[in-house]
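One thing: can you check what follows?
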Amino acid sequence: MNVPLHGLLLAGGKSTRMGREKASLVVGDGGMTQAARGIGLLGRFCDQTYLSLRAGQAAPAGAEQAPVIRDSDEAQGPLAGILGAFREAPLAAWLILACDLPFVSEALLANLVARFREKPDAPFTAYASSRDGLPEPLCAIYGSSSLPILQRHAARGHFCPRHIMREENVPLFPLPPEDSGALKNLNTPEDLAGAVAAREIHLAWFGHLAERRGLREEIVRVKAGTADDLLREIEDRHRLGLDPKSVRVAINDEFVARDCRLHPGDRVAFLLPSTGG
């Protein structure tokens, strides 16, 4: 079944807690706004890509040329944007992405689209949160068969996509281990400060650590400034048993002292005493 897949970047929120428009924020070293980055990501997978805005809202910086779909008056919040998309193309499936998810990767969307293509007639294709196992509805695919479901809930005043997915017992897919933190969103200035401070590091795993982690390589965003900071941050995240007294650290294929500074793009490996290097 060749179902058209369209993309919708949700940017119609009022960003009350952030205090400024989230879609126009620049996060990371790429210099792109969240709106420009999101539209670009969706465009790699979708036949057509749109920007979702509330009535009267101007396009955010970096996405001025994107076609706009206005919120539906059937609902509130993100559901208004999703229903607006189905008003535009009711027979398409819609890849929905919120503008405040700066850590979503191309690989994460590719995996989601591949899952959708396995069952293109499913109403929903969604990940489970790595934090609490609940649906992640703002990086998900809504099939055309989801429209009557969404309309039924909207008519009852149920506007939360997560609650709708829970009530409908939507099957969920686990996030890939390397993307376990990819769906953390930005709501406050403190969230933004943490995201801006983060840097991308390439982690390589060997031996028993690769077995414990379940993969051999990953790209992570961290706040750590030194090798020692990184070791502690990764241990806090994954509880792999990284004993600072015994683990050796290599950066860009050279063993380094624990106070060695990290730079964006560094390739870092942690090695146990029994691991060859």
